[in-house]
Specification:
1% strand; mainly alpha; elongated; membrane; 603 residues
């Protein structure tokens, strides 16, 4: 009986143990380390169980009903860790640092570009008259018997004489334009009309600058290109007349701008001046939300430099006209200075905000402005060489769209009408002032040349300054399909260098775009219908025989660009294949020329 009772009790205990094992414990769902078994009494923080966490979970399950107190407690005590997304926050911080560096780097570029424009502008008043006199003296002193077949003047001397004649003729034509009548005619218009007129003048100024340099380049090349017959020189006359009318019309356009700005300064409520300043902030809307690449930003930066320098000259003209009306009373100058500083401050603020957000949205670093500065410096240094293809003032005009001749003609007209020069003392003061301008020009050129050499050396571009242009063999004439030039750099030496040498974009000196950024489509020979592969140039029936050389080139007439890659070929490249088919070839910074006046133009 006792044995039977003990057996029954043992069976009941085994049954209870099995039921307990079947019961699911609350910590069974907690993930455990693979090497450590179940240890209910240990905490799992680093591979072990945490009994406190298990009990807390049990209490939360028991109290599953929502309550406001529990929600507020969770909101006040919950935490997060920024280091879990370290790359994202580091990138955001770098963007902030870039925006903070933009004003400093941008103003460095603006100051350097301002002095470049000032150097080209002072050249018209100081060295151009002297060079013109020397060229005329050289022309008059040449003995007529020893001319032979040589040129009367060097190309640079011919260009100097043409520039001087254009300046003199346009200045004489400006005497027939009454500045006072234009001022009162503009002042009689309403504020809205003046605002529209000022905007129209800005657009017309950009268009005139774009087309004007082409007119001047065409005149210089027509006058200096080698001619087989003397009758070919007659073509210079229509080009010269066209250039004179262009400079005259552009000077009148700038005069209208200066008159409108003068009316804004002299208005009683300053409403027109406020509207004109707000027009600068509208430029932010038209520029910030567009896609900009490195070259496009360089174009816009050069355009901003030109606009800022032109604004300073317009403010100078306004101050001269106002001081003349008040008999050069110095007290009136202090009345004008607050408005002048307000206009300058608005220009600087708009440029800083615009460039800061453009670099932020397009992920462009602030170091790109040092590259822009080095590119401008390279233009200055290269134009000082003996084998230079163009004058420095023309190089600045092509790069920035700044043409100094119309602005110089207008400034001479305003100064001569505002200042009365009578007597020997007045002429002595004028001569001393001219010597001061020459001194300023020389000092500015020396400082700019020294700074430019430093910038070029930092950018590792000094080797390109010593590259000689290739000389064409006698008797070899270029084919109509080939684009050669007298001042093109060797393409084989610059294929891997991101800073390719830029030849100014004149008809006499064209440049070959660098292929360092994007590769141009490689020419392939058209295959025959019977063959599936491209035959070699030497045996292909569709190619013409060429001269034996180390690098034979097939006939351009039988070459076609390679077809775009198929989708099967671009599977490994992702979306790069589709993007490259619609992307235009990029240019190097040294290939960006006078189209910089269209600052918002996207290639």
């Amino acid at each position: 009986m006792a044995d039977l009772l003990g057996t029954v009790l043992s069976d009941e205990k085994e049954t209870e143990n099995k039921d307990k094992k079947k019961e699911k414990r609350p910590w069974d769902d907690i993930p455990r380390s693979g090497d450590i078994g179940k240890t209910p009494d240990l905490a799992e923080t680093l591979g072990f169980y945490d009994i406190n966490a298990v009990r807390q979970e049990e209490r939360e399950r028991d109290n599953s009903d929502p309550s406001l107190a529990r929600f507020m407690c969770a909101e006040l005590t919950r935490g997060y860790f920024l280091e879990h997304n370290e790359a994202k926050y580091t990138e955001r911080r770098e963007r902030v640092y870039t925006c903070m560096r933009i004003p400093r780097e941008l103003e460095k570029l603006m100051i350097f570009g301002f002095f470049l424009c000032l150097d080209a502008f002072l050249y018209v008043f100081t060295l151009l008259p002297l060079r013109m006199l020397l060229a005329l003296l050289h022309l008059l002193t040449l003995p007529c018997c020893s001319l032979g077949g040589s040129r009367l003047l060097q190309p640079a001397q011919v260009c100097d004489i043409l520039k001087g004649l254009i300046t003199v003729l346009c200045y004489s034509m400006m005497h027939y334009v009454d500045y006072s009548m234009m001022y009162h005619l503009i002042r009689g218009q309403s504020v809205i009309k003046l605002y529209i007129i000022y905007n129209m003048m800005e657009v017309a100024d950009r268009l005139f600058s774009s087309f004007g340099q082409d007119i001047l380049d065409a005149l210089y090349w027509t006058a200096t290109e080698p001619k087989e017959r003397k009758r070919d020189s007659i073509g210079v006359i229509p080009h010269f007349i066209m250039a004179v009318f262009y400079v005259f019309l552009h000077a009148i356009l700038i005069m209208v701008q200066a008159s409108t700005l003068n009316v804004a300064f002299n208005s009683h409520n300053k409403s027109l001046l406020t509207i004109m300043m707000s027009n600068n902030f509208v430029e932010i809307k038209g520029s910030v939300f567009k896609k900009f690449e490195k070259n496009n930003l360089f174009q816009m930066s050069n355009s901003d430099i030109k606009e800022r320098f032109t604004s300073y000259v317009l403010l100078l003209i306004v101050c001269l006209r106002n001081m003349e009306q008040f008999s050069w009373n110095p007290d009136h100058l202090w009345v004008l200075l607050p408005d002048v500083f307000m206009v300058i401050a608005s220009e600087i603020a708009v440029d800083v905000i615009k460039h800061a957000f453009i670099t932020k949205f397009n992920e462009i670093t602030a170091d790109v402005y040092s590259e822009y500065r080095a590119s401008l410096a390279f233009d200055l240094v290269s134009c000082r060489q003996k084998n230079a293809c163009t004058d420095y003032s023309d190089s600045v005009a092509r790069r920035m769209g700044f043409i100094p001749l119309p602005l110089a003609v207008l400034l001479i007209r305003v100064v001569m009408s505002s200042v009365n020069v009578q007597g020997a003392l007045s002429y002595s003061c004028v001569f001393l002032f001219y010597l001061g301008m020459v001194t300023l020009k020389v000092l500015n050129s020396i400082v700019l040349l020294g700074k430019s050499c430093v910038y070029v050396k930092r950018a590792n571009m000094e080797d390109k300054l010593f590259e000689k242009p290739p000389t064409a063999a006698p008797g070899n004439t270029p084919s109509p399909t080939s684009k050669t030039s007298r001042c093109t750099a060797p393409s084989g030496d610059l294929s891997g260098d991101p800073w390719s040498e830029r030849s100014p974009s004149t008809p006499s000196c064209t440049s070959i775009p660098s292929s360092s950024i994007t590769t141009q489509p490689t020419p392939t020979v058209i295959p025959t219908p019977q063959a599936e592969t491209v035959a070699p140039p030497a045996t292909s029936p569709t190619t013409t025989p060429t001269r034996p050389s180390t690098s034979p080139e097939p006939d351009p007439a039988t070459l076609t660009p390679s077809p775009p890659a198929t989708p099967e070929q671009n599977e490994g490249d992702g979306t790069e294949g589709t993007e490259l088919k619609h992307r235009t070839p990029k240019k190097d910074l040294l290939d960006v020329d006078r189209f910089t006046i269209c600052g918002n133009r996207i290639d």
